[in-house]
Write a structure and sequence with these properties.
The chain contains 18 helices and 11 strands. It has helices spanning 23-31, 38-48, 51-62, 84-95, 110-122, 129-142, 146-157, 283-319, 331-362, 366-397, 409-421, 426-439, 441-451, 459-473, 478-483, 485-504, 507-518, 535-543, and strands spanning 66-70, 76-81, 176-179, 195-198, 204-214, 220-227, 230-237, 248-253, 264-277, 321-322, 325-326. The strands form 3 sheets. Strands 3, 4, 5, 6, 7, 8 and 9 form a 7-stranded mixed beta sheet that branches. It has a two-stranded antiparallel ribbon with strand order 1-2. The chain has a two-stranded antiparallel ribbon with strand order 10-11. By secondary structure, the chain is of the alpha+beta class. Bound molecules: flavin-adenine dinucleotide (FAD). Flavin-adenine dinucleotide binds next to strand 3, strand 5, helix 11 and helix 12.
Length: 549
């Protein structure tokens, strides 16, 4: 009898691992004051790689949220129903303090530890990272209204996930959303037309539409609307203090490429009660505090996606044989894997460095605040831009299996472009680099102080730093500068990544990065590291599971 279903040469399932299996993560925690968070990071990493959470992630995506606009009697309800797995993921994230907890935690390194946890946990499922991130990000903006912050901040930072639409101040914990984008403008929020009319008691009434508002079951939103004084930031609750629903009608959920577990809605404000946050007319300045934090999470989320893809690629190629030996023993596949590993570590080390800068700037370090201003814009541009290509290449390492949903790779691939689009699409992030340079000269000094800490360690890095200075000198008039904005943002990010790897990673990784990304010998696809690169050293580092994990 012919055996047709004997399974051979397939990789075993990848489960029961830790997503904290990366030396660069632990090194950053120890270096930048986050060592106290190691046990929590380790526990969360192990949970994220467990079969139970992998199932939750699969269910949350395969059973996407459903909108209910009306009840059976025709009353508006404007509710979104999620699979229980979504709530389980949210509860774990909030209980581990991935949302706003660091703002209520006085320990040095609180933002770094939170970043490490966000990084390991979002490798399990990225969609629910959206409301988690927005809740994290809402607090610094809300502080522009101290009276509101006094009431809401303790609930935004509380480690209780308390879903359901009830008056916010009666709940044990709150989730926050962001409501800026309108049909006629997302990047250009000054084009917003939603009107805010003073009600005479300090509150306003909002009327208008929002073309994208994710996580519409959040308890409160920071929204932009046109007050008589100009564009203003407002706090808008879903449910009013007397228990009635605020005037926020959910019109539709977006049918999205990815990010399917998360609901992204079109909403209409109909006389919605709102309280101003920050000075009327200074809405952009207020909400940018929120956007800066979500941008950090875009960098961390992209780095997390890269690490998740790399892990799958390493696993598959270690088990799959072709042409007589395992794929990961074939020289060209080793070159691809090593290149993916270099990119992944460069993204991780930059994301965690930015999180450390948040800690230090919160503690009053002006230099770190200035560094963050420029490096975050460049990092948002470059790391998020690299995410899609990295996901595609990691997927391809699995061959046809990588294109099939069961592998989990399509989910990573679909998610990647989003992190580049929202919170400032590629061009907007690159233009923000120019803005930082023109408005905050201290940012450039802080940037060079950071990269010069590695001066003399690698001639290619030294040359690349000199190249950045030359590029800056040639920016010229504003139109010419715009044409160079992407090149500049890319170069700033690459040089910073290179300096961090030279200082903190292994010689193999640092050398492979500098020889490729900084020295011009690199091709345009992954897998084109120069022939002298120490592939064995890079792959040994990528496969090292730190004891703590
Ligand atoms: C899944 C998803 C969820 C979202 N959730 C939310 C949410 O919760 N809340 C919210 O407020 N928004 C949300 N958004 C909206 C998102 O922030 C915007 O889509 C994004 O900021 C881009 O705005 P836009 O779509 O209007 O595109 P546009 O602003 O029209 O931009 C289109 C393109 O033009 C480029 N561009 C813009 N200005 C310039 C310029 N001056 N020079 C050169 N190029 C330029 C952009 O980089 C982009 O590539 C979400 C989007 C998605 C996809």
């Amino acid at each position: 009898m012919t055996v047709t279903h004997e399974v051979t040469n397939q990789a075993p399932p990848l489960t029961g691992f830790s997503t904290a299996d990366e030396p660069a993560l632990w090194e950053a925690l120890r270096r930048d004051g986050g060592a106290w968070g190691e046990p929590e990071v380790a526990a969360l990493g192990a949970l994220a790689g467990s079969a139970e959470v992998q199932d939750q992630a699969r269910w949350a995506e395969q059973q996407p949220p459903r909108l209910h606009t009306h009840d059976r009697y025709g009353h508006r309800v404007d509710e979104v129903e999620f699979h229980p797995a979504w709530h389980q993921l949210m509860a774990t994230a909030v209980e581990h303090g991935l949302h706003a907890a660091p703002w209520g935690d006085g320990r040095p390194g609180a933002h770094l530890v939170r970043a490490a946890k966000f990084y390991v946990w979002s490798q399990a499922e990225a969609g629910h990272g959206c409301p988690v991130s927005m809740t994290y990000a809402a607090v610094p903006a809300l502080r522009a209204a101290p009276e509101l912050a006094a009431h809401y901040e303790p609930l935004l930072t509380a480690r209780h996930y308390d879903p359901g639409l009830r008056p916010p101040l009666t709940k044990r914990g709150l989730i926050a959303g962001m409501s800026m984008t309108e049909k006629q403008g997302g990047s250009d929020v000054r084009a917003n037309t939603t009107a805010a009319v003073p009600a005479g008691d300090g509150s306003y009434r909002l009327t208008g539409h929002k073309w994208f508002t994710s996580a519409p079951m959040s308890d409160v939103f920071l929204a932009l609307a046109q007050a008589p004084e100009g564009l203003t930031c407002f706090l808008v609750p879903r449910v009013l203090p007397d228990g009635t629903r605020n005037g926020m009608h959910l019109m539709r959920l977006k049918d999205k490429l990815g990010n399917r577990s998360n609901a992204s809605s079109e909403i209409e404000y109909a006389d919605a009660v709102a309280w101003p946050v920050g000075a009327p007319g200074r809405g952009v300045r207020t909400i940018v505090e929120m956007v800066n934090m979500t941008r950090l999470d875009c960098v961390l989320g992209s780095a997390a996606g890269m690490r998740a893809g790399l892990r799958q690629a390493l696993h598959h190629t270690a088990h799959r044989r072709a042409f007589g030996r395992e794929l990961d023993r074939q020289p060209l596949m080793r070159a691809v894997l090593a290149d993916l590993a270099v990119e992944s570590e460069a993204a991780t080390v930059l994301g965690l460095r930015l999180a450390a800068a948040v800690d230090r700037s919160q503690a009053g370090d002006a230099g770190e605040a200035a560094l963050r201003r420029l490096a975050l814009a460049a990092g948002k541009y470059w790391v998020c831009k690299r995410g899609s290509g990295h996901a595609a290449e990691a997927l391809e390492c699995l061959g046809g299996n990588g294109y099939v949903e069961d592998s989990g790779m399509p989910r990573l691939y679909r998610e990647a472009p989003l992190l580049s689009i929202w919170e400032g699409s590629g061009n907007v992030a690159a233009l923000d680099v120019l803005r930082a340079l023109s408005r905050e000269p201290a940012a450039l000094d802080a940037y060079f102080a950071e990269v010069d800490a590695a001066a003399g360690a690698d001639r290619r890095l030294d040359a690349a730093v000199a190249g950045v200075r030359k590029l800056l000198g040639g920016l010229g008039d504003p139109d010419r500068a715009q044409l160079m904005a992407r090149s500049l943002a890319e170069r700033l990010a690459l040089v910073l990544q290179g300096s961090l790897l030279v200082r903190y990673s292994t010689p193999a990784v640092a050398d492979a990065f500098c020889a490729s990304r900084l020295d011009g010998e690199w091709g345009h696809a992954f897998g084109t590291l120069p022939p002298g690169a120490d592939l064995t050293g890079v792959l040994a580092r990528a496969r090292t599971v730190p004891d703590a994990a």
